[in-house]
Design goal:
The complex is a heterodimer of chains A (about 230) and B (about 300). Chain A is α+β, with helices and mostly antiparallel strands. Chain A contains 7 helices and 11 strands. In chain A, strands 3-2-4-5-6-7 form a 6-stranded mixed sheet. The N and C termini of chain A lie close together (about 10 Å). In chain B, helix 4 runs antiparallel to helix 5, helix 6 runs antiparallel to helix 7 and helix 9 runs antiparallel to helix 10. At the A-B interface, helix 1, strand 1, helix 2, helix 3 and strand 3 of A face helix 2, helix 3, helix 5, strand 1 and helix 7 of B. The complex binds iron/sulfur cluster.
Amino acid sequence: MADDSAFRILGPIMTGPSSSHTAGAVRIGRTARLLYGKEPKKVTVFFHGSFAETWKGHGSDKAVIGGLLGFKTFDERIKIADELAKKAEIDIQFKRIRLGANYHPNSIKIVIEDPEQPTEIIAESVGGGDIVIREILGFATEITGNEVTLILRHKDFIGTLSKITGLISEYNLNIVSLCSKDIPREDIAMTTIEIEEQAPAELEAKLAKIKGMDLVRILPKLTEGEEMF
Amino acid sequence: MTLTSVEPFILQAEAEGKSLGEIMIEHEMEIQEVSREEIMSAMGKIWKVMVSSIKNGIKIEQRSPSGMSGGDAVILLKNRKSKSITGSTIIKVVSRAIGVGEFNSSMGTIVASPTAGSSGVVPAVVYTVAEKLKASEETIIKGLFASSLIGLVCDAVASTSGSEHGCQAEIGVSAAMAAAAAVEIAGGTCKQAVNAAALMLKNSLGLACDPIAGLVEVPCIKRNGIMAASALVAADMSLAGIESVVPFDDVEIAMDEIGRMMPCEIKETSEGGLANTKTGRGYKNWLRSSGANQLQDASDD
Ligand code: SF4
């Protein structure tokens, strides 16, 4: 949003009480849900640092559950998200974890248990509702959701990256950043690409067809749905 | 572009004979490149959420999970509305601002204005002034736009975050915004609106951010109420013709300087001030241990 817009000061519309411990927690839960791609059935949420101590007063548990149900930060149902999850028979456990000093004091780890498609993230709530995804399935990342983000896990064959970027440019999408890392000795890589505009669904399907690709997700901007115009 | 001074807006308003709210609506149309109707209806959406947060908030009777807040708007309206010392306008504005604060604490949906902790002041003041003066929705929206300039300039020059500049930057700024909105709704000039904001912000300088146990409850909720009352006073003073000796642009620079001088113990860390009193530490210890005790350790598996 423009720096000098009235809606930066009067807004966002959000569920209280805390932008870092409530809104940020909703967004972290929602990101895990989007990465998994459907409604999870069994989830363990680990609270690190200040979340482990103050979650109750900020309703961080309901916030993460709301996010896992796919809610956005202004959804009035966040308040009753725990009951809704119970009704939907989603098993969500909360635990305390010490991730160590390398992690931000407001960090959450989410593990979605599914033998076919295990999903795991560690994310930080850095203030004002902003988050940073630090790890996906053990790969270090730095996803902020300021842009639309493509998350790709694939074999690190020679030429895979150029196939990926080729497809993106076919759709006339502007790449803001690209980061690709492989795990040595496992010949598997995680590539995250930020683009300016929402990508069409066909792009996801086409990317999935690239040889050696085993996970394709397109995360919308973090503030999706909050646009005033 | 960031807005670092109110001066160009005052000059433009005077040259064109327009109010601050009107100038800000035109500014928003320019930067968003959309029609006036779209701008007005977008702010109308914001206003709807503000109204619903007031209506829900003033009905809350339950205490929050921490036990530190909840039900105070109801108590105030019930016990003082008809026999108040200050008058029913003040009682109403205070209870509405407290109500929104309590609604926020109980996971209600609010408008950050500028933050969640300070979300009660602007809605309560605008609602109460509009009710008293029987203002139209159009005038209300103009009031909200008028308030935005104050917040934007404070944000650009100093900050609107308690963790950076203390509560002067959150509830202090929200009260200054509310004072400008009140003047706009009452039909005052741009200069009077900004002057009301200057009077209000001057009297919020140095305000610590020292929330007990890091929760947005104490002092936040009742501070919304008391500062909403002050915002009405600042608006009345300005409309009466009292001028702030120090103009708004200078006050915001002073706020920035003071914010930088403030120790981090009173910038949302809950290590100083009210949070560090015997009472504050008591709540903190109790909450932390009860929060932590309800979670199983991951390593216990
Ligand atoms: S005391 Fe701190 S947390 Fe509370 S409203 Fe003020 S700035 Fe926000």
